[in-house]
Amino acid sequence: MQFSTASSNTVNAMDPDRNVGFIPQAVRIRLSKAFLSLFCILISLASGAYFHLLSNIGGLLTGLEFILTSACFTLTKPWEQWKRMAILIVTAFWGGASIGPLSNLSILTDTGIIVSASVAVALPYGCFSVASMLTSHSDYFYLGGMLSSYALIPIWLLFASVVFGGLTATWIFTVTN
Protein backbone atom coordinates (compact mmCIF):
# COMPACT_ATOMS: atom_id res chain seq x y z
CA MET A 1 0.00 0.00 0.00
CA GLN A 2 1.35 3.31 -1.03
CA PHE A 3 0.09 6.49 0.48
CA SER A 4 0.08 9.67 -1.49
CA THR A 5 1.92 12.48 0.27
CA ALA A 6 1.09 15.10 -2.32
CA SER A 7 -2.13 16.12 -0.61
CA SER A 8 -0.45 16.53 2.79
CA ASN A 9 2.27 18.84 1.43
CA THR A 10 -0.10 21.42 -0.02
CA VAL A 11 -1.04 24.37 2.14
CA ASN A 12 -4.73 24.99 2.46
CA ALA A 13 -5.48 28.72 2.51
CA MET A 14 -8.47 28.19 4.76
CA ASP A 15 -6.56 26.18 7.38
CA PRO A 16 -5.74 28.55 10.26
CA ASP A 17 -3.05 26.25 11.68
CA ARG A 18 -0.91 26.32 8.56
CA ASN A 19 -1.42 29.95 7.59
CA VAL A 20 -0.47 31.72 10.83
CA GLY A 21 1.03 34.96 9.52
CA PHE A 22 -1.49 35.71 6.79
CA ILE A 23 -4.13 38.39 7.43
CA PRO A 24 -7.26 37.92 5.30
CA GLN A 25 -8.47 40.86 3.21
CA ALA A 26 -11.68 41.30 5.23
CA VAL A 27 -9.72 41.51 8.48
CA ARG A 28 -7.26 43.98 6.93
CA ILE A 29 -10.13 46.23 5.86
CA ARG A 30 -11.73 46.03 9.30
CA LEU A 31 -8.40 46.80 11.01
CA SER A 32 -7.71 49.78 8.79
CA LYS A 33 -11.20 51.17 9.41
CA ALA A 34 -10.89 50.71 13.17
CA PHE A 35 -7.46 52.29 13.44
CA LEU A 36 -8.41 55.11 11.08
CA SER A 37 -11.57 55.90 13.04
CA LEU A 38 -9.61 55.97 16.33
CA PHE A 39 -7.03 58.24 14.71
CA CYS A 40 -9.74 60.64 13.49
CA ILE A 41 -11.47 60.64 16.88
CA LEU A 42 -8.28 61.48 18.75
CA ILE A 43 -7.38 64.22 16.27
CA SER A 44 -10.89 65.65 16.74
CA LEU A 45 -10.46 65.49 20.52
CA ALA A 46 -7.17 67.39 20.25
CA SER A 47 -8.82 69.96 17.96
CA GLY A 48 -11.61 70.45 20.49
CA ALA A 49 -9.10 70.98 23.28
CA TYR A 50 -7.21 73.48 21.14
CA PHE A 51 -10.51 75.21 20.27
CA HIS A 52 -11.14 75.63 23.99
CA LEU A 53 -7.70 77.13 24.45
CA LEU A 54 -8.34 79.67 21.69
CA SER A 55 -11.90 80.65 22.59
CA ASN A 56 -12.29 79.66 26.26
CA ILE A 57 -15.69 78.15 25.51
CA GLY A 58 -15.42 74.88 27.47
CA GLY A 59 -17.73 74.20 30.35
CA LEU A 60 -21.44 73.59 30.72
CA LEU A 61 -22.42 74.45 27.13
CA THR A 62 -19.89 72.15 25.50
CA GLY A 63 -20.68 69.45 28.06
CA LEU A 64 -24.35 69.61 27.06
CA GLU A 65 -23.39 69.51 23.38
CA PHE A 66 -21.23 66.46 24.12
CA ILE A 67 -24.18 64.70 25.78
CA LEU A 68 -26.52 65.72 22.95
CA THR A 69 -24.24 64.46 20.20
CA SER A 70 -23.64 61.25 22.17
CA ALA A 71 -27.40 60.71 22.28
CA CYS A 72 -27.62 61.40 18.53
CA PHE A 73 -24.86 58.83 17.98
CA THR A 74 -26.73 56.14 19.89
CA LEU A 75 -29.98 56.91 18.06
CA THR A 76 -28.39 56.71 14.59
CA LYS A 77 -29.02 53.45 12.78
CA PRO A 78 -26.01 51.09 12.60
CA TRP A 79 -26.03 50.78 8.81
CA GLU A 80 -25.56 54.56 8.38
CA GLN A 81 -21.83 54.25 8.99
CA TRP A 82 -20.67 57.58 7.52
CA LYS A 83 -23.31 59.49 9.47
CA ARG A 84 -22.33 57.70 12.67
CA MET A 85 -18.66 58.43 12.04
CA ALA A 86 -19.36 62.13 11.49
CA ILE A 87 -21.44 62.32 14.67
CA LEU A 88 -18.72 60.46 16.58
CA ILE A 89 -16.07 62.93 15.40
CA VAL A 90 -18.27 65.87 16.42
CA THR A 91 -18.85 64.19 19.79
CA ALA A 92 -15.11 63.83 20.28
CA PHE A 93 -14.63 67.50 19.35
CA TRP A 94 -17.13 68.65 21.97
CA GLY A 95 -15.64 66.21 24.47
CA GLY A 96 -12.23 67.77 23.91
CA ALA A 97 -13.67 71.26 24.26
CA SER A 98 -15.56 70.39 27.44
CA ILE A 99 -12.46 69.50 29.44
CA GLY A 100 -11.75 73.22 29.79
CA PRO A 101 -10.87 73.54 33.48
CA LEU A 102 -8.63 70.48 33.32
CA SER A 103 -6.84 71.80 30.25
CA ASN A 104 -6.38 75.21 31.88
CA LEU A 105 -4.82 73.49 34.89
CA SER A 106 -2.39 71.58 32.70
CA ILE A 107 -1.54 74.72 30.74
CA LEU A 108 0.03 76.13 33.90
CA THR A 109 2.62 73.37 33.67
CA ASP A 110 3.24 73.26 29.91
CA THR A 111 1.56 75.33 27.22
CA GLY A 112 1.33 72.70 24.49
CA ILE A 113 0.80 69.57 26.55
CA ILE A 114 -2.83 68.85 25.60
CA VAL A 115 -2.48 69.02 21.85
CA SER A 116 0.94 67.36 21.90
CA ALA A 117 -0.24 64.48 24.06
CA SER A 118 -3.48 63.95 22.15
CA VAL A 119 -1.81 63.84 18.77
CA ALA A 120 1.07 61.73 20.11
CA VAL A 121 -1.52 59.21 21.29
CA ALA A 122 -3.35 59.39 17.93
CA LEU A 123 -0.22 58.85 15.80
CA PRO A 124 0.17 55.12 16.54
CA TYR A 125 -3.42 54.55 15.42
CA GLY A 126 -2.66 56.31 12.15
CA CYS A 127 0.56 54.34 11.73
CA PHE A 128 -1.18 51.02 12.35
CA SER A 129 -3.97 52.04 9.99
CA VAL A 130 -1.48 52.64 7.19
CA ALA A 131 0.38 49.43 8.06
CA SER A 132 -2.84 47.42 7.88
CA MET A 133 -3.55 48.87 4.43
CA LEU A 134 -0.08 48.13 3.07
CA THR A 135 0.70 44.63 4.30
CA SER A 136 -1.02 41.26 4.36
CA HIS A 137 1.38 39.50 6.72
CA SER A 138 0.88 39.91 10.47
CA ASP A 139 4.57 40.17 11.32
CA TYR A 140 5.08 43.03 8.88
CA PHE A 141 1.87 44.66 10.12
CA TYR A 142 3.16 44.84 13.69
CA LEU A 143 6.70 45.71 12.63
CA GLY A 144 5.57 48.49 10.29
CA GLY A 145 3.13 49.93 12.79
CA MET A 146 5.60 49.93 15.67
CA LEU A 147 8.59 51.26 13.73
CA SER A 148 6.62 54.05 12.11
CA SER A 149 5.10 54.95 15.49
CA TYR A 150 8.53 55.04 17.10
CA ALA A 151 9.82 57.26 14.31
CA LEU A 152 6.88 59.66 14.05
CA ILE A 153 6.09 60.34 17.73
CA PRO A 154 9.43 62.07 18.51
CA ILE A 155 9.21 64.01 15.24
CA TRP A 156 5.68 65.14 16.13
CA LEU A 157 6.70 66.11 19.67
CA LEU A 158 9.60 68.18 18.37
CA PHE A 159 7.32 69.86 15.84
CA ALA A 160 4.65 70.49 18.49
CA SER A 161 7.15 72.08 20.87
CA VAL A 162 8.18 74.49 18.11
CA VAL A 163 4.60 75.35 17.08
CA PHE A 164 2.80 75.30 20.43
CA GLY A 165 5.72 76.08 22.69
CA GLY A 166 6.49 74.29 25.88
CA LEU A 167 8.91 71.76 27.22
CA THR A 168 8.15 68.79 24.97
CA ALA A 169 11.46 68.88 23.09
CA THR A 170 13.52 69.16 26.27
CA TRP A 171 11.64 66.16 27.66
CA ILE A 172 12.59 64.09 24.61
CA PHE A 173 16.25 65.05 24.89
CA THR A 174 16.22 64.31 28.64
CA VAL A 175 14.80 60.82 28.08
CA THR A 176 17.19 59.93 25.25
CA ASN A 177 20.35 61.18 26.97
C-alpha geometry: flat
Calculate the mean pLDDT score and round it: 75
Number of domains: 1
Amino-to-carboxy terminus distance: 70 Å
Low-pLDDT residue intervals, each spanning 5 or more residues = 3-9
What do you see in this structure?
Keywords: Membrane, Transmembrane, Transmembrane helix. The chain has about 180 residues and is mostly helical. The protein has one domain. It is built from eight helices and no strands. α2 (about 25-55) runs parallel beside α4 (about 80-95) and α6 (about 115-135) runs antiparallel to α7 (about 140-165). The chain is flat and about 50 Å long. The termini are far apart.
Looking at this protein, list some descriptive labels.
single chain; 177 residues; mainly alpha; 0% strand; flat
